[in-house]
Structures are given as structure tokens and as C-alpha cells.
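Contributing new complexes? Match this layout with zinc ion.
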Amino acid sequence: MVDDHDCLAALPAWIAAHGRGRHPGIRAALNRLAQTERERALARLGPAPVCEPVGASVDLAADFQRIHATWFSDIPPPTINWSRDTGGRQLRQIRYGSYRRGDPARIMIHPRLAQPWVARVFLDHVLWHELCHHRQALTPISREKPHSARFRAWERTFPDHALAMRWERHHRLRLLGASGPESGADP
Ligand SMILES: [Zn+2]
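Output block (do not edit by hand):
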């Protein structure tokens, strides 16, 4: 940033204003810096894994039913829904899925996972993760933490656990990002 002339020129006004107000020169420099950091972080990860995308219309109920029937058929299925849409804005964090115990128990999935480019293996992994919470809720151990050793062991039995985790590391920033022309249709 220090070799950035526009930014250097804008610094005195920014300092005098204690960072308040609009400072396009500073903002642009910070955005460039953030972009460079993102590119470096992705470069360190190596090539992104190639995974089948969920495609244009995700049938969440059908996906969930398949996973439940294949691996969790010994426990009753919770209800499954998309959670509330957060719109296309930049997010600081994202909760891909959530589980609420009760009768019926409830799983909610973040609608950003309905974007066509999202890997099916990752959506399936999130469904699997939440179903592990369901199994945990149905076989309670007193004072157990949600992501206990038992939970993590169950989670790792997902057939493509490492692949799903790797896909997420490569696409986390895109999932958090504001939706632009390249990020695909909104769910
Ligand atoms: Zn969890």
C-alpha cells in the first residue's frame, strides 16, 4: 500500500478526518490490498478440486431424503428448509446449516448453498453435519459440547469429508461475497 501513489495522496485528508467520511483513494487501496490477500490465500491452497455442481435448481428435500435414507435411516428425519435469505450483500461470516432439537427437530440450510456453482458434495456434507447433530441430540450425553470428539468422528465418516472440506476452503470467500454478475443466480 505504501507504494500506492493515489493512496499516499489521500492519506493526509483521511488522517485529518480520523477516518470519517468518504475517502475513495483509501477505500480503493484497501480493496486492492484485500483482493491481493485473497489471491495469495487461494494460490497457497493450490488447485481447486473439481466437483459436480448442484446446478440450476436444487431439490433440497430430495437431497436430504437421499442422505437420510442411505446413512441415517435408523433415526427419524428432522424437517428440512432453507434458512432466511441474507440477500446478495457481502457477509462477514456464514452459517451453512443449523440444527434445532425439538419435536419435530429442524435443520435449516443457508440459501447461498443453492447457487448453481456450489459443489453437491459440499451441500451433502452440510446436510450430513446437521444430521450428526440430530443423532447426537437423540443419544444425549450430559454436558457434551456440540462438536465433541464423538461428533467429529461421526462427521469424518462422510465418504468425501476431505474433498468437501477442501472445496469449502477454496470457495468460502465466494460464498461470503456480494453477488455480482459472476457469482451466479441468487437462490
Ligand atoms: Zn455443527
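Reviewers usually confirm one structural detail per submission. For this one: The first strand starts at residue 79 and ends at 82.
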